[in-house]
């Protein structure tokens, strides 16, 4: 009875928001996962939302300029418009990563470390008593 009462009080105290107020804590705003999120994938080329969600003043002006003729846009402006919508191009997504170098390097390090331990063990660790000596001494 006493243990359940203690756990009940502790649970109420832990859930209480007045503890946060007294401790000068704040409530962290969590991201709404019900909204679509941006992902760059080769098999899904058109994400549901743009890469840049909050546009700066220059980006807003460029978006307004986008509504006019595209022939009036320079190549840099077209690239900037593309970067607002997408984080990576297909060429950047298809580019290989250098992670294999890290994996091979780590494997070689551990193989070398193991080889050094084996060499040191063969050189400095002596064999214990053999079974023949134990049997003859009895």
From TrEMBL:
It is a single-pass membrane protein. One of its GO terms (cellular component) is mitochondrial intermembrane space. It comes from the Eukaryota. Keywords: Acetylation, Membrane, Mitochondrion, Mitochondrion inner membrane, Transmembrane, Transmembrane helix. Pathway: Energy metabolism; oxidative phosphorylation. Coiled coil: none annotated. The chain crosses the membrane at residues 102-120. CDD domains: Cyt_c_Oxidase_IV (cd00922). Its main location: mitochondrion. GO terms for biological process: mitochondrial electron transport, cytochrome c to oxygen. It is found in: Mitochondrion inner membrane. It holds the Pfam family COX4. Component of the cytochrome c oxidase (complex IV, CIV), a multisubunit enzyme composed of 14 subunits. Belongs to the cytochrome c oxidase IV family. Component of the cytochrome c oxidase, the last enzyme in the mitochondrial electron transport chain which drives oxidative phosphorylation. This is Cytochrome c oxidase subunit 4. It comes from Cebus imitator.
């Amino acid at each position: 009875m006493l243990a359940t009462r203690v756990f009940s009080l502790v649970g109420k105290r832990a859930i209480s928001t007045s503890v946060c107020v007294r401790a000068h804590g704040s409530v962290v705003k969590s991201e709404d996962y019900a909204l679509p999120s941006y992902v760059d994938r080769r098999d899904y080329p058109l994400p549901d939302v743009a890469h840049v969600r909050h546009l700066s003043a220059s980006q807003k002006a460029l978006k307004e300029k986008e509504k006019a003729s595209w022939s009036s846009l320079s190549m840099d402006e077209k690239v900037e418009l593309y970067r607002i919508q997408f984080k990576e191009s297909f060429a950047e997504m298809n580019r290989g990563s250098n992670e294999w170098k890290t994996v091979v390097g780590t494997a070689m390090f551990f193989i070398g470390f193991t080889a050094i331990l084996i060499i040191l063990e063969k050189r400095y660790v002596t064999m214990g008593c053999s079974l023949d000596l134990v049997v003859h001494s009895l």
